[in-house]
From TrEMBL:
GO terms for molecular function: hydrolase activity. It comes from Knoellia locipacati. Residues 15-227 form the Dienelactone hydrolase domain. Keywords: Hydrolase. It holds the Pfam family DLH. This is Dienelactone hydrolase.
Length: 237
């Protein structure tokens, strides 16, 4: 992972290049715990698929803290959310998409992907960015229940993942989200994973659901392959 010194943002960011040196871009938005080893590993997974990945540090204006994942860190992470200026963070996210699009390594469009806090951020960014991202992937976007008024503005092809046993976003709310994001759109994929709770992709034992994590990542990579494809030329370098 490289510090994105050649990308002009007001917050820190990390840039990962695929082995080929170029490819479509993905802005990856963090969970509430910050840019953790888990987020970095998912960024690397995307780079390994052939994507140029930019990870903006959305807590950069708060000193860029990283909080321990799991039960002990959760209260501090929730407190950090209270400190975040959401609209300023959205603006930082929009700037990150624009900066990644302009990066010379990016060819073939740019999408957004986020987990939990980042899933809602990706959705909000997709609603207001101009031009729109070429693809949106949101994992259990925690802010989505309060952002559904933006759904008509989210015109990018999108993939949403939720668990049906999420204590933070109950299944009735998940179904409300599904109705809002699919209404009037023919390019929304909505996956609800049996037995999975909130943050099921996070490897912390408090959250992880191995079956849902594996299934969702396979669905994500296949979906990205259709909506934000890495060309054979970029893969080969």
């Amino acid at each position: 992972m490289l510090m994105a010194d050649d990308i002009a943002l007001e917050i820190p960011a990390d840039l990962l290049l695929p082995a080929s040196g170029s490819g479509p871009g993905i802005v990856l938005f963090q969970e509430i715990f910050g840019v953790t080893d888990y987020i970095r590993s998912r960024a690397q997974d995307l780079a390994d698929l052939g994507y140029v990945v930019l990870v903006p540090h959305l807590y950069g204006r708060l000193g860029d803290p990283v909080v321990e994942e799991g039960g002990e860190g959760l209260p501090r992470a929730m407190a950090l959310l209270e400190e975040v200026d959401w609209q300023l963070a959205v603006a930082d996210g929009v700037d990150a998409v624009a900066a990644l699009r302009a990066h010379p390594a990016v060819a073939g469009g740019a999408g957004v992907l986020g987990f939990c806090f980042g899933g809602g951020m990706a959705f909000n960014v997709a609603a207001v960015a101009d031009p729109k991202p070429d693809a949106l992937v949101s994992y259990y976007g925690s802010a989505l229940p309060g952002l559904l008024g933006l759904a008509p503005e989210v015109t990018s092809p999108s993939l949403h993942h939720f668990g049906d046993s999420d204590d933070y976003i109950p299944l009735d709310t998940v179904r409300d989200i599904e109705r809002a994001v699919t209404e009037g759109s023919d390019d929304v994929t909505f996956e609800v994973h049996p037995g999975a709770g909130h943050a099921f992709d996070n490897p912390s034992p408090m959250f992880h659901h191995a079956q849902a994590s594996a299934a969702a990542w396979q669905q994500t990579t296949q979906w990205l392959g259709r909506h934000l494809p890495v060309t054979a030329q970029a893969t080969a370098g």
